[in-house]
């Protein structure tokens, strides 16, 4: 698939794209990202891959007996990133058998589906579906880690404050007496937001 952002050659001309169960997935393929001969660090490649929550690492293995050893040699700590929390290590041997290993940061909650024992797949289509579900769930689980939870909370707080400032100005002008009477009881916007969320959750729970 031809990449949309090609005007400045920041993401390359082509990328890999797929849809699974309504999820649109775009892959940052290292060999398809722009390569600079003058930049030994390949910052443009690192910028995209390092900002992805999930990384897929392919290991070249010819001998099926060496596949498990090759997976065990992978060390996720050698890749420094504040965002990448899940690594999926994949290898395929001469018999077209796929082996999968999954590494995740200790802060990431457990996520399924569980790997079979041994984690070897002989059906390519079955492996594709299993891998996509595993990685989608891994990314969703990562959002529950302290790093992303704090970022999400700050973002939501800013959005709520912007909405409050934008839409409450006119309401305040028409309700001056009311707000003055209860000015000492007004709560911060973030507290109003969380109480509303709790209310909605409670209402949905009763509806179910």
Automatic annotation (TrEMBL):
GO biological process: regulation of small GTPase mediated signal transduction
InterPro entries per record: Rap/Ran-GAP_sf, Rap/Ran_GAP_dom, Rap1_Ran_GAP
The UniProt record lists the keyword Metal-binding: no
Single GO term (MF): GTPase activator activity
Domain of life: Eukaryota
Rap-GAP domain residues: 1-163
Keyword annotations: GTPase activation
Gene3D superfamilies per the UniProt record, alphabetical: Rap/Ran-GAP
Protein's name according to its UniProt entry: Rap-GAP domain-containing protein
Organism field: Tenebrio molitor
